Amino acid sequence: MRRGPTHPDQEEVGKMSLDVKEKMQVRLVFLGAAGVGKTALIHRFLQDTFEPKHRRTVEELHSKDYEIGGVKVTVEIMDTSGSYSFPAMRKLSIQNSDAFALVYAIDDPKSLEAVKIFREEILEVKEDKYTPIVVVGNKLDCESDRQVSAEDVLSTVELDWNHSFLETSAKENENVVEVFRELLQHANLPSHLSPALRRRRETFPNENIRPPMNKTNSCILS
C-alpha cells in the first residue's frame, strides 16, 4: 500500500514545537546599594575577572547559554543601578525577572538596610512572598572591617524571610558560583534540571552584553 507524502508544513510545525519545549529562558536580577559589588560578582562569574575600581552602572544585561540536562537554557543576568533614581526602570526589571540576588557589603550596615527596601519592593511588585531571592553578603575579603554579623543576617534571611543566604568575595572568587547555582535552582526551571545544576556549572558558549550606561571610578569593590 502506497503512503502519501507527509505534508512539509506538518513536519516543520512538529520540529518547531520540539524546539520550543527544549529551549528555556531565565532572567536573574542583581539589586543592592551602590558599591557593594554587584557588577564585580557578575563579571567574576561570567568572565572570571575582577575590576578593583567602582564603575557606576545604570543597567546592563548579560545573556549566556547553559546546556543543562540536555536542555538549552538561556540565562539573562541584569545588573542594576545602586541608586533610587530609576524607580520605573527597576520596577520593570523586577516584573520581568525570575529570581533575585540582593547584595550588601559586610563592611557597610547601610547597604543591608537597602537590601530590606529592595526586598519589600520585589514582594510588592511580584505579589508573591515565595519569589526566589538569595541574599548575598559580599566583600568577605574585608573581614577585618566587618560591621554586619553573618549570624544575625542568616537568622533573619532563612528563618524570617525564608530565603537563601551566602557570603561571598568577588575579589577572591569565594562562593560566587554558589550564588548563581542557588538562583538557578530556585528560578522557574523544571524539576528535572535541578540535579544537573547541583552537579556542576556548565560552559557558556556564547555571551551577549548590552552596552552599559555607566560612568565614574572611585572605590574598591570586592
Automatic annotation (TrEMBL):
GO molecular function, one term: GTP binding
Membrane-traversing stretches: none
A single GO cellular-component term on record: plasma membrane
Gene3D superfamilies: P-loop containing nucleotide triphosphate hydrolases (3.40.50.300)
Membrane topology note: Lipid-anchor
SUPFAM superfamilies: P-loop containing nucleoside triphosphate hydrolases
Main location: membrane
Keywords (A to Z) from UniProt: Cell membrane, GTP-binding, Lipoprotein, Membrane, Methylation, Nucleotide-binding, Prenylation
Locations listed in the record: Cell membrane
Coiled coil, from the record: none
Domain of life, per lineage: Eukaryota
Family assignment from sequence similarity: Belongs to the small GTPase superfamily. RasD family.
Protein name: Small monomeric GTPase
Species: Denticeps clupeoides (denticle herring)
Source organism phylogeny: Eukaryota, Metazoa, Chordata, Craniata, Vertebrata
